Structures are given as structure tokens and as C-alpha cells.
Amino acid sequence: MSEQNPPRLEAVPRRPRRSPRWLAAFVRHPSAIYGSTVIVLLLAGAALSYVWTPYDPQRANPYDQWLAPSFEHLLGTDNIGRDIFSVLLVGARVTVGVAVGSALVAAVVGIGLAALGALTARWLREGVAVLVDVLIAFPTLLIAMMLASAFGGSLLVVVLAVGFSFGVNIGRVSRPELRRVRRADFVLAGRAAGRGPVRNLTTHLLPNVAPVFIVQLSWAMAVAILAEAGLSYLGYGAPSNTPSWGRMLAELQSYIGIHPWSVLWPGLAITLTVLAFNLLGDAIRDVTDPRLTRAPVVTA
What is the pLDDT of residues 112-151, one digit of tens each? Predict the structure, then answer.
């Protein structure tokens, strides 16, 4: 009796994993391409300024006042002979620091208010809703100026003011989303399995409202950059010895009729950066929100 060889099992080749549909749409979205490109350049410039700048941004040279853009000075020099390109590079640190710091503060405040307004008892939810409606009535710049008047102008004041005020807005926008998700079957199943509210929040609720948070945080970064520039322009932002794009505008505004290009560069940097964060937020919303019925993005 001959032994029968067992059948050989052939390995089934695995299909290559496809990238998520939203990621493919994101990399083709024109707003995402522009926003990501500008933000990467901003981060690269801020990082580069720690190790190299063409000239010392703090050094004044009276003999190099108002030099036009050239190969030696790419963007020219200002009223005290500083290289404008070097000052812009160092000023990018302030922009990145304020944007990231404000986003972190806004995330903590927004998640806290949204959780209190959606996952607690009814009386507490209604109290949080009233508190949010009161706080959201105060403009960001007004809160920042009040804090700067009380504690002195600094970047920390700008970060706290912008982060808190926009965190209130994030809490107001995210609260209905959390209340909608909390009634989903998988959340109810988790509660029936004995999961506590904190675990349900971190495991199920926050991941499902993450697109809303990300979009709001990208807009918070844009507002933070504008607020820092505006407060520095008014003298409430970065200290006088810290290069800042808003402070550059304040220092050079009186020369706009004589040397307009000197004011053009910091103004253009602020405009392009704020536009990049806003468009990036719009692109994330377009590709992650299934309720939006937009026409597909046509690329060349």
C-alpha cells in the first residue's frame, strides 16, 4: 500500500495594500498641494535658521541701509542695514512656535469643553453650553490685548490667548459631533462591555471626530499667525529683541512710500503662510467629510 503524499498548500500571494481613498484624494487636491508645500518650506526655513543665516539678523550696519535686492542680499536690507532674508528666516521660528503652541492649547481646551458638553449630565452640559456662548463673544485680539496689558507683552501671552479663544470655538463645533458619535452602536457596545467614559472617549469618540479637530486646528494656526503679527505690530507680541514678521511690518511701515519692497517681504510671508494653513484645512475637510457632496477634483 503506497503512502499518499499530503496535498501541498500553495501560498496565496498577498495583494499590495492600497493607500486610503482620502489620502489619494488629498495628494491630488490643489489646496493640499499648495498648503503642504508652503508649510514644509516654513518648517525648513525655521529649522535652517538655527544653524545658518546669510547674516546676523541682530547686527545693524549703517553702511548697508536700504540696499536693493541683489545676489549678496537676496531681499535687500532695512533701515538699519540688517539683511531682510536673514530676519525673515529667524522670524519663521516665532511663526512656527506660535502656531504649534496655540494649536496645542486649543486642542486641550476644545477637547475638554466638547467632552464636558457632550458626555456629562444634562445640567452640566447646559452650563458648559452657556459658558461657551459667553466666551466665544470675546474676539481673540481683545483677549490677547487684555492679557498683555495685565502680564506684559510676550509670545506666551499670544499663545495662551489664541489657543484659549480658538479652543472655545473648537469645543462649540465639536460638541455636536461627539453627541452624534456617542449614540453609535459600537460606542453603546463598549459601554455595555464595561468600558468607562474616558476609555470610550479615547478609543471610539475622538478618532471618529478627528477630521473635525484637525480642520479646526489648522484654522487655529492661521488665526494664531495673524494674531501674532497683529499684536507684534501693535507692540503687544514678540519682545523687541526677537525678530518677528509682525514687528518687521511695524518698524518698516513708515518707509512704505520710499522703499515699498522692504514692507512687501514680511507682508507676503504672512499672507502666504496664513493662506496655506487655511487651504490645508479646507483640503482636509473636503477629503475626510463624507457629508460634503463636492465634484471630484480634476487634475491635469
Answer: 888 887 777 788 888 888 888 888 888 877 887 788 778 7
User: Is residue 200 a part of any domain in this protein?
Assistant: yes
56 within domain boundaries:
no
228 in Cβ contact with 95 (< 8 Å): yes
What is the C-alpha to C-alpha distance for residues 57 and 48, in angstroms, rounded to an integer? 14
- How far is residue 89's CA from residue 99's CA, in Å, rounded to a whole number? 16
Domain limits at 269? Answer: 25-51+74-288
d(CA 129, CA 131): 5
Query: Into how many domains does the chain fold?
Result: 1
Chain centre to alpha carbon of residue 88: 19
In this structure, what CATH number is given to the domain that contains residue 266? 1.10.3720.10
In a domain, 123, yes or no: yes
Nearest Cα neighbor of 252 from 79, 83, 95 is 79
Q: Which of 233, 274, 243 is nearest to 90 (CA)?
A: 243
- Residue 5 belongs to some domain of the structure: no
The DSSP bridge partners found for residue 83 are: 77
For 156-202, what is each residue's pLDDT tens digit?
Answer: 888 988 899 889 988 888 888 888 887 777 777 777 777 776 777 77
